[in-house]
Amino acid sequence: MITRSKANIFKPKAYLLHKKVAKIPKHVTVFKALKDIGWRAAVQAEYSAMLDNGTWELQALPLSRKLVGCKWMFKVKRKPDDSVERLKARLVAKGYSHNAGCDFRETYSPVVRSSTIKTVLATTVEKKWTLRQIDINITFLDGELTEEIYMS
């Protein structure tokens, strides 16, 4: 078998030139985030969207059930020139505290196949369409759950 390296075919090395950009820490704790007006607005936007969608209802915890914890995740979304586009906050369940069969029955993570992306790009070029990228603020892909999950 002839590999690329045996045939002296190598990818050129790409070196990135680092520019000075706004100093925003990559890993932010919830305590630091709530002191910053930008992160606080991102948390409020996420929280408001969950309330508007009726994501949860408050209930007392039955004695036979266990709580699933949650945490805030923070991400800095950047533009192609590496400047800050926006700050993004997400409230996520702590997956390691779930019990199979009790807190959930199956797992599902929607992903796009690379062949789908290639097909969309090829069609766009062929039809001479313009292509834009959008970032959805908040999405709920699976509709309503049938299981009862108690989250603190």
Quick gist of this model?
The protein has helices at 30-33, 37-52, 114-127; strands spanning 70-78, 84-93.
Tell me the total number of β-strands.
Answer: 2
Mean pLDDT: 77
Determine the number of helices (DSSP H or I, runs of at least 4 residues).
3
Oligomer designation: single chain
- In terms of DSSP E residues, the strand content is 5-15%
Radius of gyration from the alpha-carbon trace, in angstroms: 22 Å
What is the overall shape? extended
- Note poorly predicted spans: none
Largest sheet: 2 strands, antiparallel
Structural class: alpha+beta
Report the span from N to C terminus: 56 Å
Residue share in helices?
10-25%
Strands ordered across the widest β-sheet: 1-2
Order of secondary-structure elements: HHEEH
What do these coordinates show?
- With 152 residues, the chain is an alpha+beta fold.
- The protein has a domain at 30-127.
- 22% of the residues lie in helices and 12% in strands.
- The chain has 3 helices and 2 strands; from the N terminus they run ααββα.
- The protein has helices at residues 30-33, 37-52, 114-127, and strands at 70-78, 84-93.
- Strands 1-2 form a two-stranded antiparallel ribbon.
- A hairpin with a 5-residue loop joins β1 (70-78) and β2.
- 4% of the residues are buried.
- The mean pLDDT is 77.
Secondary structure topology:
Blueprint: H1 30-33, H2 37-52, E1 70-78, E2 84-93, H3 114-127
Antiparallel strand pairs: 1-2
